[in-house]
TrEMBL record:
Family: Belongs to the TonB-dependent receptor family.
Residue ranges occupied by any TonB-dependent receptor plug domain in the UniProt entry: 103-210
Species lineage: Bacteria, Pseudomonadati, Bacteroidota, Sphingobacteriia, Sphingobacteriales
CC per GO annotation: cell outer membrane
Name used for this protein in its record: Iron complex outermembrane receptor protein
Keyword set, alphabetical order: Cell outer membrane, Ion transport, Iron, Iron transport, Membrane, Receptor, Signal, TonB box, Transmembrane, Transmembrane beta strand, Transport
Organism per entry: Mucilaginibacter auburnensis
PROSITE patterns registered for this protein in UniProt: TONB_DEPENDENT_REC_3 (PS52016)
Length: 784
């Protein structure tokens, strides 16, 4: 009997609905152990190292009534659960319209709250996604805090659609999304879905490389309080407080979070001071949910967005930051900083109209304001609209000065969707949105080194922009036997009014009207309950960004980009092994790229390239080697080409631009091979040791396939340790240690190049975002 008591067994099973369909993402809890598991894509769950004894297992899944069962364990046990609809609407309705389902014919990856918590140690949001296929993540400051960026299939943030609860986050003009404006948002996220390629129709900017769909925290029925603290290398500190009331009076919940993040950064003077909060209140009725989210982020970062000059790296100084240099003193300006505040307000409403028809709608408003301040050496006064000053017979036409470039904007609108599901074989969604953006761009001189009679705060430039974005889409999934037929169509209309140049190069208000039609079709064939194959064709259209419009005349204005995305794949899932193989061919028309030339108003421009493409294969797997050892791995092999590319290099000797024509070259920032691996070992209950690896092949900094203007391949390895335990009066104490770049690989994950011709030779002027050698983050989580 003592031998039996000390034995460790496994408990596994499957969670389905009443139709026998798997429920991925369901939560299974062994209540007396406070252990939980999340079902995989096939509805399977498993607990390891469970001692013999009697236990109660509880299963919950949003939209279904929870079920609990008692079990006596004296050996490896199997226990299945069948859940029935609860008849109560849930928060999930808000995001379902823009998410792919388990059998959708598109490539996607889901991250659960448990996945997010494992990696939420203090680095930027993008690092949560680093181990998803075809993904490259970078940090401007080199240590993961401050400005962080992501590329998926070689596409940067301006081509990745980001939504929070179905509401667009990308800036309406630059089209980028900046997680530094919402620090520690990860601590308020319930789930994330990353769709690669065009994906399903969504709100906001077009998904030209991928879309990231975030759902923030949902209903928690019991009260809680949580303290999360992290500290580590380069003065990095994260403090987070989470609190929640649980369900009050069977109808109300209130949740809140307060966070701060500090870091000196790896690169010199790359400090970050980030603050944020998240407040949420909800009312749950039998047929409706009303939720108000108010969240905000404030960031102050010393500017490190230019990277480290290549010559400094070669000389052995990987941390040198030349931004803010003052020529007269040889020092650096202390307040060379970026300062921005972004406040978000979301009112989300879901209503179950009938057993077959539900409605989800949202009102939203985002208020953003801030500036970056910079020291400028030896500036011409006439460039700022200032007449040179004569003092004591000396004409002052140049001076050092400090300026602030301001942005103040408002973004508001409405999103909606109707979901009609008459039976298990048909699901129809009608959705859309109307959004307006109003932005003021204005610039000030705060100080001049020479006497210029310019008062502090002198405003020398201002322009106003307005953009309206309307879209409507319809999506349907029809199951016929073993086939699922998928159709999705979207119409999008854009009206953008901005300050630009007319044909006589006068700065005047202009307007651009754009209409896009984005159809998508696909089919999935279920080979067996555990495997399927799929194929799809999707069309996406993407408008030029602010600089493309404002730095052009109507005659030189770039065309919109068009993408035809072909996807095909195979999925397999079982208890101990799952795999997804996906092939893609992304055919671009009029892709916008930088050429190095200037346009008719003297600004650096992007130009349309008629033909370019990306083609590749993505593989992701999960292997349960033993009950304690699991291996997650993914790899992408791709070719990414621009056809008939013209590059213009400035020739300083002749003050002209020299043209070089290329027949076929690699698209910039598009590695041909990306791989990720997570080998996780659980030696005892509530303990995990994970070895995490990432390989990224060579990336070119421009579209010429020039090795001297590229980032070398890198292979980086991290170690993640975690241990959770309970003490009296505390639900959970979690200890964590993340050791990044354990072998101190010297690498740069991003960069830029500015080649010119001088003395008959090409000088590249490369800048690299160097990443930190071995560094760590230790964390302590206490949940009451």
């Amino acid at each position: 009997m003592p031998i039996l008591a000390s034995a460790q067994f496994s408990v596994s099973g499957k969670v389905t609905n009443q139709a026998g369909e798997a429920l991925p993402g369901a939560t299974v809890i062994i209540q007396t152990l406070n252990a939980n598991a999340i079902t995989d894509v096939n509805g399977n769950y498993q607990f390891n190292n469970v001692a013999a004894g009697s236990y109660t297992l509880k299963v919950s899944y949003i939209g279904f009534a929870p079920v609990q069962k008692a079990i006596r364990i004296a050996g490896n046990a199997k226990l299945d659960f069948e859940l029935s609809n609860s008849g109560t609407i849930t928060d999930e309705v808000t995001v379902n319209a823009t998410r792919a389902s388990a059998k959708s014919p598109t490539a996607f990856a889901n991250l659960s709250k448990k996945d997010i918590e494992k990696n939420n140690s203090g680095r930027g949001f993008e690092y949560l996604l680093e181990q998803t296929p075809s993904t490259v993540v970078s940090s401007n400051a080199g240590a993961g805090v401050g400005y962080t960026g992501i590329r998926i299939r070689g596409s940067d943030g301006t081509r990745i659609n980001l939504t929070v609860n179905g509401i667009p986050i990308n800036d309406a003009e630059s089209q980028g999304s900046f997680s530094v404006n919402l620090p520690d948002l990860a601590s308020s996220i319930n789930s994330i879905q990353v769709q690669r390629g065009v994906g399903t129709s969504t709100n906001g900017a077009a998904s030209f490389g991928a879309s990231i769909n975030i759902q923030t925290n949902t209903r928690q029925d019991t009260a809680y309080a949580e303290l999360n603290n992290s500290a580590g290398s380069y003065g990095t500190v994260k403090n987070t407080v989470n609190i929640g009331t649980g369900l009050l009076g069977d109808h109300f919940t209130f949740d809140g979070r307060l966070s701060r993040m500090l870091s000196d950064g790896y690169i010199e003077r790359a400090s970050s001071n980030l603050k944020s909060y998240f407040l949420s209140g909800a009312y749950y009725g039998k047929n409706n949910v009303l939720r108000l989210n108010v969240f905000s982020g404030q960031e102050k970062t010393y500017q490190a967005w230019n990277g480290v000059p290549e010559e400094s790296v070669i000389a052995g100084d990987r941390r040198y930051n030349e931004v803010g240099y003052i020529k007269k003193t040889g020092g650096f300006y202390d307040n060379q900083t970026d300062n921005y505040t972004q406040n978000h307000y979301q009112l989300l409403y879901d209503h179950q109209l009938t057993s077959k028809l539900s409605f989800s709608g949202a009102l939203h408003y985002t208020r953003g304001f801030g500036y970056y301040e910079e020291y400028k050496n030896d500036q011409k006064l006439t460039n700022y609209g200032i007449t040179p000053v004569v003092i004591g017979g000396t004409t002052i036409s140049n001076t050092d000065l400090i300026r602030q470039l301001w942005l103040s904007n408002h973004f508001y609108g409405v999103t909606y969707n109707l979901n009609y599901k008459p039976g298990n074989n048909l699901n129809i969604i009608l959705g859309g949105a109307y959004n307006e953006y109003k932005g003021d761009h204005y610039d000030k001189i705060m100080w001049t080194q020479a006497s210029t009679n310019v008062p502090p705060g002198y405003e020398y430039a201002r322009d106003f922009a307005k953009k309206t974005d309307f879209n409507v889409f319809s999506r349907a999934e029809l199951t016929l036997g073993d086939f699922l037929l998928y159709g999705d169509v979207q119409y999008r209309h854009i009206d953008y009014s901005f300050l630009g140049f007319d044909r006589n190069l006068n700065n005047v208000q202009q307007e651009a009207l754009l209409d896009f039609f984005n159809p998508k079709v696909g089919v999935t064939y279920n080979i067996s309950p555990s495997s399927n194959v799929y194929a799809s064709l999707a069309v996406g259209n993407h408008e030029p960004n602010r600089n493309d419009f404002t730095n052009s005349t109507p005659a030189s204005r770039p065309k919109s980009e068009n993408l035809k995305d072909f996807e095909a794949g195979y999925r397999f899932g079982s208890k101990n092994f799952s795999a997804n193989i996906n092939g893609f061919y992304m055919l671009y028309k009029n892709q916008l790229v930088l050429t190095g030339s200037l346009n008719d108003v003297g600004a650096a421009i992007r130009t349309n390239i008629k033909d370019s493409y990306r083609a590749g294969i993505e593989v992701s797997t999960r292997l349960g080697i033993t009950e304690q050892l699991t291996w997650l791995a993914n790899a992408t092999v791709s070719t990414n080409k621009v056809k008939n590319f013209d590059q213009y290099l400035y020739n300083a000797d002749s003050d002209t631009y020299d043209l070089t024509q290329y027949k076929k070259t690699d698209i910039a920032y598009s590695p041909t091979f990306i791989a990720g691996s997570t080998l996780a070992y659980k030696p005892i209950n509530n303990t995990e040791i994970a070895f995490i690896s990432k390989y990224v092949s060579r990336q070119y900094l421009d579209n010429t396939s020039t090795v001297s203007r590229s980032l070398a391949a890198y292979f980086v390895n991290d170690v993640r340790l975690s241990y959770n335990f309970k003490v009296k009066g505390v639900k959970n104490v979690g200890l964590g240690l993340l050791i990044n770049n354990v072998f101190s690989e010297k690498y740069q994950s991003d960069g830029a190049t500015y080649p010119t011709i001088e003395g008959g030779q090409i000088n590249n002027y490369n800048y690299w975002f160097t990443q930190a050698p071995v560094n760590f983050l230790a964390s302590l989580n206490v949940r009451f």
